[in-house]
Design a protein that fits this description.
Blueprint (H helix, E strand, L loop, with lengths): L2 H14 L7 H100 L3 H9 L23 E7 L2 H9 L24 H10 L8 E7 L1
Antiparallel strand pairs: 1-2
Helix pairs in contact: 1-2, 2-3
């Protein structure tokens, strides 16, 4: 049966079905229409089910073919991303190490300068001012060192933050002391994980907002780039 024929017959049956059943004749007519529609639906299924089945098989095959090529590419991309993250973290570590080295140099320079000024003050007889100068903490010039990681167009990573209870007694004491609200006791896992820590839904929510600023006794906070 042609689809155009199905369309005409289906519309006709649908139009005929719009009436009130108020007497025996209408009841009998409605029964006949019900059977006619049932037969029409069987014809619709006969025409379209093979098309649907064929399309389903084609879709399934297309998905399988895509998966065949995409999964190895996805794995390769994940491997590269982890390598990029490791390199970036190492460059950050190097930059921080260099910053601390330069800061130490600047601190030594500031200390030497303060000592020279103090000696001059003593030479002019102002020993009190010299002692006051040397008693003050030395504040070296701020040092900034940029990491040497090149920028890659289109590449990005996200930092995920985590928190877990390492000392349950200390954490509960923090609740008692008011450092953590009472609902902080809700959602604590019954058992320790493989690392010997307790999970806590309250901490999971808090660390997502506070990140490294989350400082609670008995709680460990850490992050991971993905």
């Amino acid at each position: 049966m042609e689809i155009s024929t199905i369309e005409v017959e289906a519309k006709s049956l649908i139009g005929q079905a719009s009436f009130e059943i108020q007497n025996p004749d209408a009841y009998t007519h409605a029964g006949s229409l019900w059977n006619a529609i049932k037969e029409m639906r069987a014809k619709v299924a006969e025409v379209f089910d093979p098309i649907i089945e064929k399309a389903h098989k084609a879709h399934k095959e297309a998905v399988a073919q895509k998966k065949k090529f995409d999964e190895p590419l996805d794995q390769a991309q994940r491997t590269l991303k982890q390598g990029l993250i490791r390199y970036d973290e190492e460059e950050k570590r190097k930059a921080e190490k260099k910053r601390l080295e330069l800061e130490a140099i600047e601190r030594k320079k500031a200390e030497d300068e303060a000592l020279e000024v103090a000696e001059l003050l003593e030479q002019v007889g102002d020993k009190e001012a010299a002692e006051e100068l040397l008693s003050k903490p030395v504040e070296p010039a701020p040092v900034a060192v940029q990491k040497a990681t090149p920028k890659i167009t289109g590449f990005s990573s996200a930092t995920h933050w985590y928190a877990a209870i390492t000392d349950l007694k200390a954490y509960l004491q923090a609740i008692v002391n008011g450092a953590v609200p009472l609902n902080g006791a809700l959602g604590i896992s019954e058992h320790k994980d493989a690392a010997g820590c307790y999970g806590c839904s309250y901490l999971t929510q808090r660390v997502g907002t506070d990140k490294e600023a989350l400082q609670i006794p008995g709680v460990k906070v850490w992050s991971k780039k993905v």
